Fold these 2 entries.
Entry 1:
Amino acid sequence: SQTIHQWPATLVQPVGSPLSLECTVEGTSNPNLYWYRQAAGRGLQLLFYSVGIGQISSEVPQNLSASRPQDRQFILSSKKLLLSDSGFYLCAWSAAGTGINQPQHFGDGTRLSIL
Amino acid sequence: GEDVEQSLFLSVREGDSSVINCTYTDSSSTYLYWYKQEPGAGLQLLTYIFSNMDMKQDQRLTVLLNKKDKHLSLRIADTQTGDSAIYFCAEGRKGGYGGATNKLIFGTGTLLAVQP
């Protein structure tokens, strides 16, 4: 069966420091991968998605970047964190293709606090 | 627009049925999904319905789809305190992300509070 792992679970970083959050998926090949940020309370904002190695698309302009060095690895990074980068970051995967049911399956998230 | 709308809050007593409602905008949506988020956790896929169906039942969960009104509901029978969580509906639109995959549009979530 497929599993998705995110780490770390929580992270406290000072303003201006770099960031690296990692997400890996097991049990499937060539998944679509996603990074979301969840604002306080509710909404899910899609940050990046990837349909293959080295193929990253950004949904919103921001201080963050994403990379996919391997088929089942998705990394969220920043060179210099801002206070506004605080939030709950969720990674998700789905099966590739458009003709089938494609729910997204989420990791447990990383709670990022910027001081 | 792209909005998927849900009411923000629902309170029920333990043992009662809960009905969480959602309206969506795109009549060409393929699948419609319900996710559950417990405090501090990721989103858990609960169930989904294909757009050519009217109803789907899965144990205590019943999903009703009214395509004419673009209205989706999730009914939880015999609601328990462990059902307390935020529930998100999402619509799947074919050909999102440059045509490579389906794009999911999430609602803002409904907080379900179950009173003992």
Entry 2:
Amino acid sequence: NAGVTQTPKFQVLKTGQSMTLQCAQDMNHEYMSWYRQDPGMGLRLIHYSVGAGITDQGEVPNGYNVSRSTTEDFPLRLLSAAPSQTSVYFCASTSNPGNGYTFGSGTRLTVV
Amino acid sequence: AQTVTQSQPEMSVQEAETVTLSCTYDTSESDYYLFWYKQPPSRQMILVIRQEAYKQQNATENRFSVNFQKAAKSFSLKISDSQLGDAAMYFCAYRRYNAGNNRKLIWGLGTSLAVNP
């Protein structure tokens, strides 16, 4: 099925561990974004990309890295997990931001 | 800076009835997009409806329609003939029309809608 696929759906990390959240889309969308969703704070943009090889920071980029080597994939790397990174993470993509984004089903990350 | 406010943290509606969710925003731009997204318990964000600010006509998608009042900076969502499957968190979002490097969506904090049988 066409769409945005995020893996894993759930993850528990220990403080200081690193990991990569995977995001793949098969709709040939140029624009991809990572958000985190926290209670009472809505969705906040972590990083975004406007095409392969082009990434930029959002409003809360610290502690996260991204790369965009292909149009399809946009992984999010946590460098050294902290409890403050406990959140639900969403990847989203679109061919035209004015038309709205297609979201993945999210990853619930807990850092202990 | 643009902001989006959803003043109703929680709402409820009886099945088959109509409910309206409120959203106001603050911007100095004249051209922009507005969106309503639905997040059911499954967690996935689903685009419900979008509105382009330069269009006078209110957007409609089946049972979902908006009341877009540009001068008042208001963008409410009306759900007609509410169904149990409409129970979800609803988010209002804003994006500049010509965002340039400022490409982020501005999100409200959401309204939790319960549908009572």
